[in-house]
Design a protein that fits this description.
- The protein has helices spanning 11-21, 32-40, 43-59, 74-80, 93-102, 140-149, 172-177, 184-192; strands at residues 64-68, 85-90, 108-112, 123-129, 151-162, 195-204, 207-209, 218-226.
- It is an alpha/beta fold.
- The protein has a single domain, classed as Vaccinia Virus protein VP39 (Rossmann fold, 3-Layer(aba) Sandwich).
- An 8-stranded mixed sheet has the order 3-2-1-4-5-8-6-7, sandwiched between helices.
- A hairpin with a 2-residue loop joins β6 and β7.
């Protein structure tokens, strides 16, 4: 019986093995939400991370940031990269447990909490992606008031949500959770009741742009400088 003879490693294999050793052996645990996305629609992970990068660039460096609806925290990592402090909150306790186990750090914390009725401090910026479409319409004003209540004067709110015009192409799972979809005009009007300045952007896949909003599959609004006495009827 002949022994299996192991071929000698190539120079490339040796070089890569040495390089890989520098990475360590740390592993990232994914929870149910991102595990589902990676298996069923991995491109959506790219989209979500690109929107977080856009928000981080708009917010700037050395800021205190609150993310509302952070889920398992992958996007929050991007927000925290150049922040002095970052807090992610979500009403999904299981997602927060995953984030605390795998992603939390000295300057990046996670809490199982609801923004509505919650007071977490005064932040330079609040970011929230794929959340507002899950807020029932009768709670929209409470949601936006809670956001401004956690912002400093002159603070920034970056909010992203699927465009209502793209709903016809959404999966059954997506449609099940989207009970409050927005057009660009409606999102702008909602933000204008609570912020002195509103900027609107569109997105198709991972590309954020200022093109024709009805043809965008995703909307990003930025509210700057909270109105401390919002005009609900404006």
């Amino acid at each position: 019986m002949t022994k299996d003879i192991q071929e000698p490693a190539t120079k490339e294999q040796v070089q890569w093995t040495e390089t890989k050793a520098l990475l360590g052996n740390d592993r990232l645990l994914l929870g149910p939400y991102f595990s589902y996305q990676f298996r069923k629609s991995p491109r959506r992970i790219l989209h979500a991370l690109s929107y977080h990068k856009f928000a981080a660039k708009m917010i700037g460096t050395s800021k205190r940031i609150l993310e509302v609806g952070c889920s398992e925290g992958l996007g929050t990592l991007i927000l925290a990269e150049f922040a002095t402090e970052c807090l992610g909150i979500d009403i999904d306790a299981e997602a927060i447990a995953v984030a605390n186990e795998t992603i939390a750090s000295a300057k990046l914390k996670f809490r199982d909490a609801d923004i509505i009725g919650g007071s977490f401090g005064k932040y330079d910026a609040v970011a929230s992606f794929d959340v507002i479409e899950h807020i029932f319409p009768e709670n929209e004003e409470s949601f936006l008031s809670a956001v401004t209540g956690n912002l400093i004067d002159g603070g920034m709110f970056v909010v992203g949500t699927p465009n209502i015009t793209s709903n016809q192409y959404a999966s059954a799972v997506t449609k099940a959770g989207h009970i409050n979809l927005y057009s660009a005009d409606r999102l702008r009007e909602s933000l204008a009741r609570h912020f002195q300045t509103v900027l609107m952007f569109s997105a198709n896949d991972e590309i954020v742009h200022t093109g024709f909003a009805p043809m965008a599959h995703y909307l990003i609004g930025i509210g700057i400088s909270p109105n401390r006495s919002p005009s609900i009827g404006r």
